[in-house]
Amino acid sequence: MITVVVADDEPMVCAHLRTILGSAGDIEVVAQARDGAEAVEEVVRHRPSVVLMDLRMPGVDGLAAIERICALPEPPVVVALTTFDADTYVIRALRAGAAGFLVKSTPPEDLIGLVRVAADGHTVLSPSAARRLVALSSDGHRRDDEARRRTAGLTDRERDVLACLGEGLSNADIAGRLHLAEATVKSYVSRMLVKLDCTNRTQAGLLAHEAGLVGR
Fold this sequence. Notes:
Layout: E1 2-7, H1 11-22, E2 27-33, H2 36-46, E3 50-54, H3 62-70, E4 77-82, H4 88-96, E5 100-103, H5 108-119, H6 127-136, H7 140-151, H8 156-166, H9 171-178, H10 182-195, H11 201-210
Parallel strand pairs: 1-2, 1-3, 3-4, 4-5
Helix pairs in contact: 2-3, 3-4, 8-11, 9-10
């Protein structure tokens, strides 16, 4: 069972998400939160699989809550909820540790699938969205230089795997493209997250874009 905490200061949004996700037999919304502080409390209380986090909330906002949740031992997957498909708030959320983002207008049938994808540890972020987000960064040149510095010590194979993460590929897809065993890809990804100081695959994927490794 995939357990979910929904954090949004709009009761109608929470009710809508609870209804949609509750229609899936393998997903349960275990708690709702009206602000970031309450979201952190509910995460500690319920230890959910996934948190859907609105970014703009009164008091403790979603960005601060994401940082606090991602700092917990064995944190859940956090997915940012946003009205817009790419803005600077989303960039900050991803860099704080969010595994991706969902637009609130996402069709119900897609929302369920994307929550399952997030729970499985995959990126909830399309390559086109990643490119837009990187382009929106106000400190793009500094970020690019920093990304190239961080990835300079990677081996050629690690750079290939990182570029695939930037495309949003799963371990199975990467294994097929690079002719590797899926377990080998998983090992590469785990080592690179540590080496690059990335919280999750999404942060690593954005780093790949910033370093110019995607679409070479």
